[in-house]
Write a structure and sequence with these properties.
The chain is of the alpha/beta class and 338 residues long. The chain has helices at 12-24, 38-46, 57-62, 78-88, 102-115, 130-140, 165-184, 271-291, 300-319; strands spanning 3-8, 28-34, 52-53, 68-71, 91-94, 120-122, 147-155, 188-194, 210-216, 221-227, 235-242, 246-248, 257-259, 262-264, 323-324. Helix 1 packs across helix 8. It binds nicotinamide-adenine-dinucleotide, 1,4-dihydronicotinamide adenine dinucleotide (NAI) and (2R,3S,4s,5R,6S)-2,3,4,5,6-pentahydroxycyclohexanone. Residues 156, 171-172, 175, 271 line the site of (2R,3S,4s,5R,6S)-2,3,4,5,6-pentahydroxycyclohexanone. GO terms for molecular function: inositol 2-dehydrogenase (NAD+) activity; nucleotide binding.
């Protein structure tokens, strides 16, 4: 069975997802596209075998020829499209963040739970990355004993001008927040955000890097160095410290060159390079699940919890204090293994 997917928002990652759905993955075709920038959507549509060009996201979601929807527009627009998909009973893959405020994410969780079935998957692709999956197997398999700590770093080479210090938490560290919840299978209970001396490469008024400290309910402490002007490459690091050993992500370049007394390897240039195979795996898993009549992977609850932790992180950035995370009980729809 081939599912027909409609894509809303065909910027950087939207075009990547259109390409992988059309040329890399199996079981799906892109049958409709739209973007608030219609000219951009037209260019994307012209490069494909006859998808419908819609004038709005609402129109695309209402199109009976569209079986399921991928939302890759800007974060603040996600809520509207995800809610419309849930109301239409259509499966939706939404890039992170699920929504940009606690209230918006809550509305999505409420709408989905009211239908009694999962319709939403959130694009936390690290859960599909081979290295993170191997790390989770070691942690949950008990090989290093009880996990105590995690050290993480999320370094972007640079960011566009519209990027703000707040986005280091909400757009960048949001991935590390999801990883911590998923790896340890616990909610985050508190957040502290510390500011070291600012990089000379950060624009005026910008705090970069940030050190985000997450405490899980069970007492695992996760320190995340998040920086967006690292310059040298896209560098993602993680090490879990357990009672009996440690597990860490290895360098992601395929080879190490040793010559003339040196030891060298490549640092990925972009998230596209570091996580390409993870993006392929997450969308293939979604396509397969949709074809089988359901969904998989990170849920609306995962997106909601991440947004709440991010909001708490922003409060911590402003106050300089440790801020507790307040979450309601997890609805039954979202209970069970991650
Ligand atoms: P982008 O700016 O390149 O693309 C966004 C596109 O959405 C643009 O083409 C814009 O015109 C369109 N758009 C904006 N508002 C819209 C609306 N109301 N209706 C329809 N289209 C609209 O951004 P991007 O880098 O592709 O990021 C898009 C999303 O993907 C963001 O949510 C971002 O957080 C996420 N993202 C995730 C990852 C990841 O690693 N998982 C990486 C990059 C981006
Ligand atoms: P982008 O700016 O390149 O693309 C966004 C597109 O959405 C643009 O073409 C824009 O015109 C369009 N758009 C904006 N508002 C819209 C609306 N209301 N209706 C329809 N289209 C609209 O942004 P980018 O980098 O592609 O990011 C898009 C989303 O993907 C973001 O949520 C971002 O967080 C996420 N993302 C996730 C990544 C990941 O690692 N999982 C990596 C990069 C982005
Ligand atoms: C981007 O939107 C992503 O999601 C990337 O994974 C992240 O590394 C980057 O900081 C974000 O801007």
């Amino acid at each position: 069975m081939t599912i027909t997917v409609g894509v809303i928002g065909v910027g950087a990652i939207g075009q990547d997802h259109v390409h992988r759905l059309s040329h890399v993955l199996s079981g799906a075709r892109v049958g409709a596209v739209t973007d608030v920038d219609l000219d951009r959507a037209r260019v994307v549509a012209d490069g494909l075998a006859g998808p419908v060009l819609h004038r709005s996201g609402a129109e695309l979601i209402a199109d009976d020829r569209v079986d399921a929807v991928v939302v890759t527009s800007w974060g603040p627009t996600h809520e509207e499209y995800v809610l419309a998909c849930v109301a239409a009973g259509k499966q939706v893959f939404c890039e992170k963040p699920l929504a940009t405020t606690r209230e918006a994410a809550e509305r999505i969780v409420e709408a989905e739970t009211a239908t009694g079935r999962r319709l939403v998957m959130v694009g936390f692709m690290r859960r599909f990355d081979a290295q993170y999956r191997a790390m989770k197997e070691v942690v949950t398999g008990g090989e290093i004993g009880l996990p105590l700590l995690m050290h993480a770093a999320h370094r972007n080479p640079s960011v566009p001008d519209f990027f703000t210090s707040d986005m280091i938490v909400t757009d960048t560290a949001v991935h590390d927040i999801d990883v911590a919840r998923w790896l340890f299978d616990e909610e985050i209970a508190a957040v502290t955000v510390l500011r070291p001396r600012t990089s000379r490469k950060a624009k005026a008024g910008f705090d970069d890097p940030l050190l985000v400290l997450l405490e899980t309910e069970g007492g695992v402490l996760v320190d995340v160095e998040a920086s967006v002007n690292a310059g040298f490459g896209y560098d993602i690091r993680g090490e879990v410290v357990g009672e009996d050993g440690t597990v860490e992500l290895s360098e992601s370049a395929g080879t190490v060159v040793k010559r003339a007394g040196t030891h060298a390897g490549r640092v990925p240039a972009h998230w596209r390079e570091r996580f390409g195979p993870a993006f392929d795996a997450e969308l293939q898993a979604w396509v397969d699940a949709v074809a089988a009549g359901g969904t998989t992977g990170p849920s609306a609850w995962d997106g909601y919890a991440a947004t709440v932790v991010c909001e708490t992180g922003l409060a911590a950035l402003r106050s300089g204090a440790r801020e507790p995370v307040v979450l309601p009980d997890r609805p039954d729809l979202y209970k069970g293994p991650a």
